[in-house]
Amino acid sequence: MNKQRIAIFASGTGSNAVRLINHFEEHPTIDVAFVLSNKKDAKVLSSSAELGVTAWYHSNQVVSNGDFLVGLLEENKIDWIILAGYLRLIPSKLIESYEGKIINLHPSLLPKYGGKGMYGRNVHEAVLANEEKESGISVHFVNERFDEGAMIAQFFCQVQSTDKIEDLEGKIRLLEHTYFPIVVEHTILNKH
Ligand code: GRF
Q1: Is 4-191 a domain of CATH 3.90.190.20?
Q2: Ligand 1 pocket check: which of 9, 36, 119 to mutate, most ligand atoms within 8 Å of Cβ?
């Protein structure tokens, strides 16, 4: 049986991309085919290459071209697209071609603290400013609007009144690193 091939899209540090690469390294039926970033100097590009995974940079202009992306993904026989800290909207052409096959990770309990501009520290800042008692992560399918696709799984953590942004960031990162690769794996294994 052919392996299910993943493309990871990431814009920044890529700690989640690295977790995914490590998780699937020896996997019998799932393979990380390449990593794509829209940031030339993103750390994710060098980290992925160091782990032996092909890493490509394409400009914002190029990644907003749905025909280009679909062509690239089809040429590389990609089955699944995993967004791990990818900050661009996915072109509708790509969503049509890969319906139900694009998964995003978001650092809040959606639908709270989602949408344009809600990423990274902005999310944690807003959670703390609103004195939320809990936060967490959401893993969901991607549709044409930021952070609004069908939910796959959510994981919670407590927020203490004394928490600083760094504290919350640490709790969220721990949830992401622990659960994201497993949820991606289960979703793929259950759906193909
Ligand atoms: C993560 O918090 C993820 O939830 C969000 O962007 C961040 C990416 O972190 N979408 P990293 O680049 O994987 O370290």
Answers
A1: no
A2: 119
